[in-house]
Amino acid sequence: MADIREVPLEKIDDYRWRIPKSYKPGMRVPGIIYADEKLLKDIRHDKALEQVANVAFLPGIVNASLAMPDLHWGYGFSIGGVAATDIEQGGVISPGGVGFDINCLDGNTFICNELGYRIRIKDYEKNLNKDKLICMDFNKEKSDSTTILKFLKQRPRTVVLNILTETDRGISATSDHPFYTKDGMRKASELQIGEEVAIYPFEGVIYEEPNSEVIVDKRDIKRLLSKLGKGSSGRAREQIIGHLEKRNLLPLRYNSIQLPYLLKIMGYCFGDGLIYFTGKRKRGTVCFYGKEEDLKNIKEDLIRIGFNSGIYSRHRHHRIRTFYGVYEFDRRETWLKCSSSALAALLAALGTPVGNKCYQQYELPKWLFKIRLWQKRLFLASLFGAELSSPATMTGHGYNFYCPTLSMNKIQDSLDSGYKFLEGLSKLLSEFGISFHKITQRKEFVNKQGIISYRLRLMMTSETENLINLYSKISFEYNEKRKFLANCAVGYLRLKRQIIREKEGVAVLAPKLYNSGKWDREELCNYLDSLTNINERFIERSLYEPRKAKPRMWGDNPTFEEYIKQATKGLGCSGMVWERIRSISDLEFYGYVYDFTVEHAHHNFIANNFVVSNCGVRMLKTNFQYEEIKNKIKDLVYTLFSDVPSGLGSKGDIRVSAKEEREILVKGAEWAVEKGYGTKEDLECTEEYGAIQGADPAAVSDRAYERGKAQSGTLGSGNHFLEIQAIDQLYDRDLCDEFGLTLGQITIMIHSGSRGLGYQVCDDYTKSMIRCLEKYSINVPDRQLACAPVNSPEGKSYLGAMKCAANYAWANRQCLMYLTRKVFEKVFSASWQKMGMYLIYDVAHNIAKIEKYIIDGKEKTLCVHRKGATRAFGPGHPALPERYKKTGQPVIIPGDMGRNSYLLVGTKKAEEETFGSTCFTGDMRILTDKGIVTLKEIYEFNKLGLAYNAFSLNKDTLSTEWKPILSVSKRVGPAIRISVSQTNRSRFSTLDTTSDHNFFIFDNAELKFDELHKIIDNQKMVCVLDRLDIRWKLFFPRLAFLVGALATDGYIDRKNERVVFTQKECEEKVNFIKYVRSSFEHVFEYGLNEGKTKFTSGDIRGRVITGSATDFSTGRKHTAEEIISIFDNIETWVLGLNTESTFNFLAGVIDGDGTWNPARKVIDIFAGKEKVIGAVVLACLKLGILPYVSVQRENCYIIQISERIEELLRFTKRVKGMPHRQKYGSKLFSVRQLFTENWKSGDIKWPFKRKSDRNCLMEGEKILRFLAWQSSSRYNKEKIIKITNSPLRMQRVKKVDDLGIDELYNIEVQDNHNYFIFTKTFVPVLVKNCHGAGRVKSRTAATKSINLDALLKELESKGIMVKASGRGTIVEEAPQAYKDVNEVVNVVHNVGISKRVCRMRPLGVIKG
Amino acid sequence: MENYEFIEHTADIGIRVKGNDLKDLFKNAASAMFDIIAEKKSKEQRAKSKEILVKQKADNLDELFINWLNELLSLSATEELIFSDFKIDKIDKNSLQAVAIGEDIKNYKVNTEIKAATYHQLKIEETKPGWQAEVIFDV
What we know:
The complex is a heterodimer.
Chain A: H1 2-5, E1 10-13, E2 16-19, E3 31-34, H2 37-45, H3 48-55, E4 65-67, E5 105-106, E6 110-112, E7 117-120, E8 132-137, E9 142-154, E10 160-165, E11 170-174, E12 178-181, E13 184-187, E14 196-199, E15 205-206, E16 214-216, H4 218-228, H5 236-246, E17 252-253, H6 259-272, E18 273-278, E19 283-289, H7 292-304, E20 310-322, E21 325-338, H8 341-349, H9 373-387, E22 405-411, H10 415-430, E23 436-446, E24 452-460, H11 464-474, H12 480-515, H13 521-531, H14 536-544, H15 560-567, E25 577-587, E26 593-598, E27 615-625, H16 626-629, H17 633-643, H18 658-667, H19 669-674, H20 680-684, H21 702-708, E28 721-730, H22 733-739, E29 745-753, H23 755-775, H24 793-828, E30 839-844, E31 846-855, E32 858-867, E33 890-893, E34 901-906, E35 920-921, E36 925-928, E37 931-934, H25 935-943, E38 949-954, E39 959-981, E40 990-993, E41 998-1003, E42 1006-1011, H26 1012-1017, E43 1021-1025, H27 1037-1049, E44 1050-1053, E45 1058-1063, H28 1070-1084, E46 1089-1100, E47 1103-1114, H29 1117-1128, H30 1130-1136, H31 1139-1153, E48 1154-1157, E49 1162-1167, ...
Parallel strand pairs in A: 3-4, 7-15, 57-58
Antiparallel strand pairs in A: 1-2, 2-3, 5-26, 6-7, 8-9, 9-26, 10-11, 10-25, 12-13, 14-25, 16-17, 18-19, 19-21, 20-21, 22-24, 23-24, 27-29, 27-30, 28-29, 28-58, 31-32, 33-34, 34-58, 35-54, 36-37, 36-55, 38-39, 39-40, 39-54, 41-42, 43-54, 44-45, 45-47, 46-47, 48-49, 49-51, 50-51, 52-53, 55-56
Helix pairs in contact in A: 4-8, 5-8, 6-7, 6-9, 11-12, 12-14, 12-15, 17-24, 18-24, 21-23, 23-24, 27-28, 27-31, 30-32, 31-32, 31-33, 37-38
Chain B: E1 4-7, E2 13-19, H1 22-37, E3 38-40, E4 49-57, H2 61-79, E5 81-91, E6 95-104, E7 108-110, E8 116-126, E9 131-138
Antiparallel strand pairs in B: 1-2, 2-9, 3-7, 4-6, 5-6, 8-9
């Protein structure tokens, strides 16, 4: 725990603490903890801080890793998307749906298939079948396989990075693609040189499509059977053939889908397998010998091709005489037996030896030489799994490997065939580039049968390359241990190769440098030492004792054994190893990138909570409408009643051992899912993913265990029930759509708890806490309220036990849901998936929770007990699963029998209180990595959990960079309108802000900030952005031109997914049209068709204008989709382009909607669509062009470009002109603000004096030119040079208007605390964060008042069917005691704590 | 078996039970509790019964009373029995020793599950004819 105490915390204010990003390399955002000092102490005991910090590693995390006041220490972030990914393939993951966050791999990246072949990811487009990929189960530290659910292909939207590891492994991926590192999943862009990433060393071989020739057919089997003497009586032969045909194994072809598995099985048979036919009827059996875990894999493969088998074991005593002596040992022998004549016959027909291989004459079947390399690999790998020696280094050495050796025993008669067999093998191996050393023969002792056998050994060479080929291309199958060692060996050998190469290099370089005479010995050693990992001794020896032999792997380098330990730390036996990153570089990239979504969703992060529940409710939906099942309700109710155990002491069929029970207490619903009683998806829809962390099974008494043992999957009695309902009222159609709910739809609600275990926990602790009342001097009027301080040992112990009960309850409800689904399956004879019986949500409603509230203006920490109340997180809450981020948490309010139930969602009412005083109005736009976005949008999307990075200035380096926006706040206050422009005369370049907001200025060549009204009063000028320095550089010149042209002159018919490009075919446009059409063909391999020509006539200012225009269009869906997806994110897309592509984009826009203004010799672009203007402005800024934007009428903008025109016109096809030679400089600076001190003291010369006196702007380049003549003692030259080289310029500012009270927004930007805000005409002005606390206090208003337990049963005879196990009379005796659920919901809805979604009417009720 | 009566309570079940002495009171309270929980399926049927020794200690009578009832509930759940008879051997304000006699739960029809006997509004008092207790059960 020591390291946890060291988590550094910075105090923000009394209730907020920050874990700085620097705490751990890899934290993307700081952690923010809401707590007071006392609480913090407790948190320090827990792993909470560490957890907060760990959460900050997650890709896609929102702004900061927050531990909110109402969460106290527990809630991890809901991540939803950290899926299991195969690391070797670069982490296959797609954070669902958000268009611009899809992260991808280069199409040439190889993906490793489960069957050990490699295929380029781009080829999956054609080949997306049921292929399974290797992936990683982080919890079990094991590799696993997974099915591909979704395949993605698109053009990259962020820079593509090439990552190289120390052993020369390379991968190209978009910068946001996650990789698995020691700190968890991290984006490629955040990886650092020297950091370790997980690598799966196995490579396999490239996939080739096999042909469809037949290997074995009916006749072959018949022939074989008659040879074996299997009679034709009793249709035995026909039966065998029938079996094989039924399983699609006859005829067997090279491309049969079973062949890969057969090859593996066969390979193993050649080694540790045995085929025999016994008895009169020649029944065939196939046996495999090996370790149980490996046999299980064979068993699975046998099932895949349609055969069952069993694993058996026995103890055996062995006595063996060998060359070295007599050995005696006991061993547990395990074998897998498949008693299928059909399989035995098929394998034999394929050429597998029957009977004792020692006596048989057999060779490799000829057809094996005809199969594809990847298929050969399967055969060899499993043969090796059985027979090839383990990768191991020499005893007492540790660096060099033994020769891999494959041995077989043969008697004299079959010796020849043995040689032939091994020669055949070596022929196969040579195809993999693996060479063999020799075949040796040794005479063995007389065996049991009294026959002398000979041992033949095929020894491969132990050269590094040979071994790498063997272990990375072929490796082992059906032998997990050797497979693991092979992976390690590949990692080790590559490292070794690298080190030796380095050494070789040094051995050559060192004498060369030394002999040049320019280096002394020490210098040289230091230099070479810094270059490589090689020790000084080696370098010295290179100088004095030129070596004859190759350098070796000695000294500081790890032995194989040490390497395994280090390289697989934390990766277990997955076969993955850590490798250091050597370099990361940007790629000029053209083409598509690809990605998968895989099924193996792995949630490593399970939300953690302080809360406890032993009672809750879950709701699931179905596809049924009331009309469809109304006649079945009786059946359902009766079957449910008989199949779902209910009532007192009811025991379920789901019985568990004490050990398993302990597991339930910790794992909750996940236990049930692991048992097969549900799916991972169910867990996502369960509060806390169905398990609270921190459950302490030791805090639960034996008696409680006893009571809980048999009650999993039982309903219990009291107010617990299971109800079939129909939706009878929709309140919010949008929300209903989100949940997939319609009027009349059937839903099911399950209300139950932790059963006997929970009662016992409660009873035990009530008993013990009665002692605490005295111990802690607590005075309560009712002993049933016995309690202990939350922080006391008793309190803690109770929490640990309560958590257990909560988890048990979740597991129980999961089991109940499973039983319910089973009942539906029984009644309707359809699978539950087909019936759409998906869980909507499971939420606990008996809760005790630590929260902070403002009481009398003071923040206080409370332990809020919620009995019969449910939490209700609003939209965007981090603890919500992805699917409910948008809607808010579903809140389920069950009515009691006969009453309606409700589904609501949590809201975020009055969540924000901001104390900052400086802000902008919501329609102001800022520059983010998602384009130009209004503050209001950021505010709204931030609530949905979308993360933005703001373009921000680093005050020290005066360079720009992206920085996360930490928070967005909103308040109401007075605003003013200012204008920012070069001349101070612009009417359009306005900003709406508060007069006290801090803007950046230069003062005596120092970057400072000041309140706006002071800046205006002192006639100072503010800093604006001069150019966008962004290193993204996607290379799509022709596509960029097309996008520019289509953005202005094109039309995308989104509904019909058509792209239309309308042009008047006049002479000046011919080139342009031609170029667009050819570009289209070039980019999409598909042209634009010429369509209708339309004639128009209109009236402009009294003149009749007629014209004609032709449509060029394509109806290709994919093309339209791609263009639409670019248009949807056009600003981000433009941000990513490289220089040439950016020029092309602008050229396309100019050709589309631009014109040459001969009078002023500038280009004018007319644009109406704001998104396009944003993109054009960004493109200009990227090229260092300062566009001048003016507004004509309401919505028409004119963008004037006066720089780099010559270059631009090289890319345009239509717009041409003769530009000025003169450069229009507009990178201007206030001379007075650069030379403030000089001006004040009078120590200032021409031309700066005059410009300062008049408070003029001066071009940066001119300033530098004049400055060059001056002595540096007078002026602060260095600073001024830095400023003029920075991506900033300066403009004048003045107040234009008072706006009165308005809604105001502000954001908090990490580290730099500044961002660029655009004026109405897109001048990016640098401004500071709000200087106030800027606190966004988010709290979840929970539905405290809903007393679910106190809801009344009001049985009405409305055709509601009730089946109860108990009399259930007593509870119903006091109906007045219950609040009407309808009223409760009304109150909750009207107050705004939750929002109504729909109402359900009960149809049938099962009650305990 | 009508040695108890229901008392007014909103959500849970409350009973008032009487006894000639403490032994009687404890016995009747336990009987009442199991009477609420279950009724025998067939009166005539005589099944094998099981006896279980119950020992409890407490700081005061209230605690002893609640512990006694909760212990029986707990035993009933783990042993899968419904208790129908109780022999209280020794009792004072701080301790109790008794034998609970029960039959397999299968012979009973279960009506209500009682989670616990609570301290809420618990009253144990000596009255003229003997003892009286009021207790609320969490159902």
